[in-house]
């Protein structure tokens, strides 16, 4: 965090990254003194309502965050910033998106939690767009011109007023991560899933909260003890916030967690919190084995849509096959239950040294009817591309220590099929699970089944 005093005194001369959160009501003109170096500017958490008409003087500016301010309109001047590729205006009061407000190099646009009722057709001109986050607005339709954004990979449209999911979304060649829960068109499915799935209530007075394990966008996870009938067990308690997240509504995440049911590669729900003193919603889960760790970190400003792995991370063929098989099995299980995970990413996967894997984080999960064709198949094939990205990342980190050329070829063929630019040509997860199961058997000489896990601490990434 920087200060205005530092900026005005010249102490930030040559800075590439500036962050100011000090109650600003006007754009500090001293920032223009950094035009030759400034690439990342974060003005979130102020009281700004506008940006200067000559913002393009910051000719090296690539990333601009203006979340938690008081903008009622996306500033049109953004469209004149030649290098600007990431724009974040989350949690403002934006109703209007001028047609000329989109910079030519735009890759990542965050407009979560505003008051937008309509997207301009000109958004379809953003041919570099990869990530579009629109959850928590008032959209009733999506412009068909958005289909021209053929590089789009991640789309968040949850918690809007959409009356249907456009069929053309299923034909977008790179779309892989989609969240749409909390819209009128899927309210019936969400309600039916909630009624159909019974999770025992767990009274708050039976829980002894110990300390936080981690905090994500939708809530805080605590380590706790559960006391019942003289027995004590260690558990994890997730208390949900009430705010709209980048993925959608916390209640949608909770419904999906419960409706996911039981699978060895999913983290089970033990109970739903009842009688919380502030009526907070929450779930009780086991603590997952300490041998498990996150497969990767979430995307950063440079990678945009792809996860970031530690440089030293490498896998042998058996571990790659095992991780891929377990996640394919978990995702296939969700698809059979009419749940699109929506965030099938390495940073939402835990794994151990043997490659046993768990899929977590249902913040972007959405419901669909598995019997509704062609929508159901289209959604499943959309998520298969996300699985293909995971396969690609694992193959890139193959250490070559074990496995045959034939096994690597098999894995590569699955990757190619999953990443097909023609969505209807992608295999479904049932076929993928079967094929990867055969590969696991080849690598380990054992008949594969999804791995049952022991219990220990699980802390999902933000």
How would you describe what is shown here?
- The chain is an alpha/beta fold.
- Among the domains are: 199-286, 2-Layer Sandwich (Phosphorylase Kinase, domain 1); 294-444, Transferase(Phosphotransferase) domain 1 (Transferase(Phosphotransferase), domain 1).
- Helix content is 21%, strand content 17%.
- The chain is built from seven helices and 19 strands.
- The strands form four sheets. An eight-stranded parallel β-sheet has the order 1-2-3-4-5-6-7-8. A six-stranded mixed β-sheet has the order 9-13-14-12-11-10.
- Strand 17 and strand 18 (357-359) form a beta hairpin.
- It is globular.
- The two termini are 20 Å apart.
What's this, in brief?
This protein is α/β, with parallel strands linked by helices and 462 residues long. The protein has helices spanning 4-9, 187-196, 250-259, 317-336, 375-396, 405-418, 429-444, and strands at 17-19, 40-42, 63-65, 86-88, 108-110, 131-133, 154-156, 177-179, 201-203, 207-215, 219-228, 231-240, 271-274, 282-286, 293-294, 339-340, 349-351, 357-359, 366-367.
